[in-house]
Amino acid sequence: MFPKLSLRSMFHGAGGGNDIQWCFSQVKGAVDDDVAEADIISTVEFNHSGELLATGDKGGRVVIFQQEQENKIQSHSRGEYNVYSTFQSHEPEFDYLKSLEIEEKINKIRWLPQKNAAQFLLSTNDKTIKLWKISERDKRPEGYNLKEEDGRYRDPTTVTTLRVPVFRPMDLMVEASPRRIFANAHTYHINSISINSDYETYLSADDLRINLWHLEITDRSFNIVDIKPANMEELTEVITAAEFHPNSCNTFVYSSSKGTIRLCDMRASALCDRHSKLFEEPEDPSNRSFFSEIISSISDVKFSHSGRYMMTRDYLSVKIWDLNMENRPVETYQVHEYLRSKLCSLYENDCIFDKFECCWNGSDSVVMTGSYNNFFRMFDRNTKRDITLEASRENNKPRTVLKPRKVCASGKRKKDEISVDSLDFNKKILHTAWHPKENIIAVATTNNLYIFQDKVN
Amino acid sequence: MPRPRGFEQEAPPPAREWPISGRSARRAQRRPFVDAEWRSLAPPRAVGRSSLSGGKLAAAAVAVAEQRTRRAASRVRIVVTKAPTACWNRGSPLPRFSCGLRVGRTGRRDPDNRSLKDTMFARGLKRKCVGHEEDVEGALAGLKTVSSYSLQRQSLLDMSLVKLQLCHMLVEPNLCRSVLIANTVRQIQEEMTQDGTWRAVAPQAAERAPLDRLVSTEILCRAAWGQEGAHPAPGLGDGHTQGPVSDLCPVTSAQAPRHPQSSAWEMDGPRENRGSFHKSLDQIFETLETKNPSCMEELFSDVDSPYYDLDTVLTGMMGGARSGPCEGLEGLAPATPAPSSSCKSDLGELDHVVEILVET
């Protein structure tokens, strides 16, 4: 239950000083600045062991990286991640009835725990969820009687002897095949999928509804949350994210665009429209503005590994909630408070609607989230220290320690600081992932994937 | 059926920055954050933060044209042409108060309609109509006393309405974004109602409950939401399969790109066909006819722009080829093209097309 971490990182966590120093490890993706739209990374997810790292992009492709086995002799760094498998998960579709395109962009990937030699993952676009089986093949049968080695059929009349085909080793081949397709259950755009701790069911959430599926059954799903009003004119709130509790298979939470999180118990009723707990922080009247509601909209919700806490990300902050306390979060971290005075401009250029994700480290001691200008932030819950790092190709050499960055909100800009006005709002880090056991993080910029590790001496 | 995806690849050169999916995924060049003059808009009752830096906006109240175009060029993602205000100002001396985006004209095509004075978008875009000089002067006097907070609030409202109008024809718009923008608009409306600045335009509108006026804003979102089957369908398990709900949608969706045009047409043309329209269209027409038409006017009263077909809208090509003035935004909003007096033949054609759609 408690992942192994080095002694140093357990006690010090992230931050400056003697704590973890993050080093550049790898960067994946095209180098040139001209971003092909299909290459934009839309989701990043480690599997349960951390050996595999899956990314989804706007073009509907899934690329899986595998960590090399550590070289026991040299322990300079942990294994590198190399491409393991690439496949086209979703294709663009056209909804003829509505005359609208269905984007093939992969919104979420979730791994299933490994039960046999093959790996399984769920990937979803706006409308359809697919269960993929990724299996390795390193042997192939040879010695067929009726087929040549290249596959051509032999003339049966030329067969004079019989032999038994045998398996011979071959080059490793990784195959991805769709095992289940869960379609036609969502009228609105799917924003979340979450696998239950029973490993048999999972939920999928769109803007107004949440459905419960069984992994084996594709033609049926149960609707467990429906917040669609009878009159769409009265719609004021949508679902933005949902997740199952990591340990309780009957509990899940969903967040809304109004900054509330509802915890529901599926044992209470079939349709969980009435929440069991409602997590909402009262609004700070001194910070009230026309944008208050927009910036309170929660873009991501994640349970801690322990299941005791959950983390929510709204536009300007990260909040940690204790599941036992509904009226306010136990911790609040400001991600980029300097943007509060820029909200109108951010509204104008639509950046205020950006949906940032957040993630926990393996021991639930550090949380991480992204920001603009390719910055990402880490908050150590124990030491209350935070750090801002940048994902850029400038620190390209492996094991280069990342330098902490600082944004100067106002006043005199010190050396090495960046002023708010020179931030690049096109370069945003929306998707980040943390290895479940080690201090390895994957950070996705627009079309590049950066992998950072902590410095191992 | 051929895929219309090709629209994206057919985009003209980089000058076009029209967002396809609500987020700019195209811009490879760095776009520094240039403006620092906007403070968070705080309602008057907030303490300590009430000093809104007038900054450029205060200056804008006086000498707006250059600043608008400059800001529009540097800030706004949507292609707002750098067309000077001259092509809009038909003799009106009133300055504009906006952040660089324009929503639509306040003038109505029908000069006999007394609901011309629309203080909600009081931006000096009034056409010179006989018999309305006194309204114009009154509005002018009122405008000069408006505080910068109101200006900013007004600009925010304009901006929000523009955002709601820009429907994405190929990909469904983001529902979360639409809801948040609509809530913002409603919030502004509520506040303006409380302040008393949200004055009724038409005499009959003054008797309406505030809710009516607020509700009418929802119509703006209908183009986005109507495609999901806006009207209730309790008997259909659309949580399970999309089929039944989709059955109800085809009429709406097929008409969704057209219904604002139709409704604009409805404003001036015969209303006999209204009864046979789809329910959401029906509600729009009702709103236009009986409820506060002011904001609807703003959307649909693109009186001088000729009819923009879908291709033109999507490729963002406004300008010279058109006969009338062509500020980018009106044309970019596919919901807003309205037939002008020179397009009577278009009206007839539209009428015919809509009849066919409804009857099938």
TrEMBL record, chain A:
It comes from the Eukaryota. PROSITE patterns: PR55_1, PR55_2. Keywords: Repeat, WD repeat. GO terms for biological process: regulation of chromosome segregation; response to morphine. SUPFAM superfamilies: WD40 repeat-like (SSF50978). One of its GO terms (cellular component) is protein phosphatase type 2A complex. GO terms for molecular function: enzyme-substrate adaptor activity; protein phosphatase regulator activity. Belongs to the phosphatase 2A regulatory subunit B family. This is Serine/threonine-protein phosphatase 2A 55 kDa regulatory subunit B. It comes from Gorilla gorilla gorilla.
